[in-house]
Design brief:
Blueprint: E1 3-6, E2 11-14, E3 22-27, H1 38-56, E4 60-65, H2 72-81, H3 85-102, H4 118-130, E5 134-137, E6 140-143, E7 184-188, E8 204-206, H5 208-220, E9 224-230, H6 234-249, E10 254-260, E11 263-265, E12 268-269, H7 280-285, H8 290-298, E13 306-308, H9 310-332, H10 343-359, H11 364-384, H12 389-406, H13 418-433, H14 437-449, E14 452-457, E15 460-465
Parallel strand pairs: 3-4, 3-9, 9-10, 11-13
Antiparallel strand pairs: 1-2, 5-6, 6-7, 7-8, 11-12, 14-15
Helix pairs in contact: 1-8, 1-12, 2-3, 4-5, 4-6, 5-6, 8-9, 10-11, 10-12, 13-14
Bound molecules: adenosine monophosphate and zinc ion.
């Protein structure tokens, strides 16, 4: 049975969805104002592993993952460039999905954009005004925290004592609020200001928190199973989402809350504002593979901080290679006549250890250890006795199961088609004619790596598969 650490209770809890066999979950997505960095991707890969493991456990899934395509940075940057917010965010949305896919993440079922859900946000705000959980001040609408006594139940931040005591945690620069803790649901904008949307309570634009309440409840209902995101979202973002959603519906918002820890660099949290970050593209340009980056980011359990180093990334690169070579070796191994060995027991034990580790609050480090143990033991057997047909199937089946959850083995090398080979050989001849031996050697090596052997004969160049 899967156990997850629920931030609401600060305890490990058995995971039981509200509806049997089906999980509805929401994960806060990126703000598309720039390239996502690998810290952001640590959180998103954690979300992907959680998603894949829920599917592995047999649940049907509705997973919503939003794009925040409006916030102050987006508004300021697009205004500075004299373009609309849509024009500004469009390339970053494209880059984001390219990186997300390249890192082997599965696309969630629903990927809504904030600016396409303003109507739903306005509806919640209207409800909150109506039932006394929100009020107007100087044309903007604020959430009235005094009307929601449970405020603080997620982050466990105590607001008792005087407001000054809480002033480092809340926005005190607005004196038009009833209480320093109150936060904006709707910000007044001028008649001609862009972006702006008309609402019964005046033209404005939404605050950040209301968008996730609106998009989650639209696609998952007023109460759903699981809400996740990075650690820094606990407060104020998720606390405010709870206040808005529960204030409007009067019902529990999310049953489980799961938060992943930071990626650090030199022991400082990686962030755009500090400038101490690498994007996925930075690392690709340096020649690191998406699989190694993914492996590194998921190798430490999500509730532990992870310090990024290039040594760690290089080690991940060779680990990935070892795993991929293992899979190829098992595929190609000559079959023995089936004398009994311990391989099927080894595989069975590895699968059990893997599942027990993942059940234990997604302990990816222990799950990886189970895989590496199996690889080591099966390699030894292959070297001495080979595998029987059944053993080979059992090992490959286990690898496929591990990979369905972690996505670290990657696609198998595609076999080159005959016409691709012919084209490469023609290109190589052409390169040699131009005395471009570097390119010629590169093509020879590429073909060799795919098992294609070139032979110079008196009738010209011949090739064959190894
Ligand atoms: P943002 O695009 O700023 O809205 O952030 C997207 C996600 O990345 C959020 O869930 C953040 O909690 C998460 N995040 C930001 N910095 C880090 C970091 N250094 N390590 C892990 N997650 C992070
Ligand atoms: Zn959110």
């Amino acid at each position: 049975m899967l156990r997850l650490f629920n931030t609401l209770s600060r305890q490990l809890e058995e995971f039981e969805p509200i509806e049997e066999g089906r999980v509805r979950m929401y994960i806060c997505g990126p703000t598309v104002w720039n390239f996502a960095h690998i810290g952001n991707f640590r959180t998103f890969i954690f979300g992907d592993v959680l998603r894949r493991y829920l599917k592995f456990k047999g649940y049907e899934l509705t997973h919503v993952f939003n794009l925040t395509d409006i916030d102050d940075r987006i508004i300021n940057e697009s205004a500075a460039r004299g373009i609309s917010i849509d024009e500004f965010t469009a390339p970053y949305i494209t880059y984001f999905w390219e990186d997300f896919d390249a890192l082997g993440n599965e696309r969630p079922e629903v990927t809504p954009r904030a600016t396409e859900h303003i109507k739903e946000m306005i509806e919640i705000i209207a409800k909150l005004i109506e039932n006394g959980h929100a009020y107007e001040s100087d044309g903007s609408i604020y959430y009235r925290i005094a009307a929601f006594p449970e405020y603080g139940k997620l982050s466990k931040i105590s607001f008792e004592g005087n407001i000054a005591g809480a002033s480092d945690r809340v926005d005190t620069d607005k004196y038009d609020k009833e209480d320093a803790r109150d936060f904006a649901l709707w910000k007044l904008v001028g008649e001609d200001d862009m972006p702006g949307w008309d609402a019964p309570f005046g033209r404005g634009r939404p605050g950040w928190h209301i968008e996730c309440s609106a998009m989650s409840m639209k696609y998952l209902g007023e109460t759903f199973d699981l809400h996740a995101g990075g650690m820094d979202l606990q407060f104020p973002h998720h606390e405010n989402e709870i206040a808005q959603s529960e204030g409007a519906s009067g019902k529990l918002f999310s049953k489980y809350w799961v938060h992943s820890e930071f990626l650090k660099i030199d022991d400082v949290t990686m962030s755009k504002s500090k400038g101490n970050f690498f994007t996925f593209r930075d690392l690709r340009e340096q020649g690191y593979s998406p699989l190694a980056i993914r492996y590194l980011l998921l190798s430490v359990p999500y509730r532990k901080q992870l310090n990024f180093t290039f040594e760690g990334l290089k080690a991940a690169e060779s680990t990935i290679e070892r795993l991929r070579n293992f899979r190829s070796l098992v595929k190609e191994v000559a079959l023995n006549t089936g004398e009994s060995s311990s391989v099927t027991d080894t595989v069975e034990a590895a699968l059990q250890k893997f599942e027990a580790a993942m059940d234990d609050d997604l302990n990816t480090a222990a799950a990886l250890a189970a895989i590496h143990d199996m690889v080591r033991e099966v390699n030894t057997v292959i070297a001495s006795a080979g595998l029987s047909a059944d053993e080979k199937i059992a090992v490959l089946d286990a690898v496929a199961k591990f990979d369905a959850v972690l996505g670290i083995f990657g696609k198998e090398d595609q076999e080159l088609l005959d016409e691709d080979i012919e084209a490469l050989i023609a290109e190589r001849q052409e390169a040699r004619r131009h005395r471009d031996f570097a390119r010629s050697d590169e093509i020879r090596d590429e073909l060799a790596a795919k098992g294609i052997i070139l032979e110079d004969t008196k009738d010209g160049m011949r090739w064959r598969r190894k």
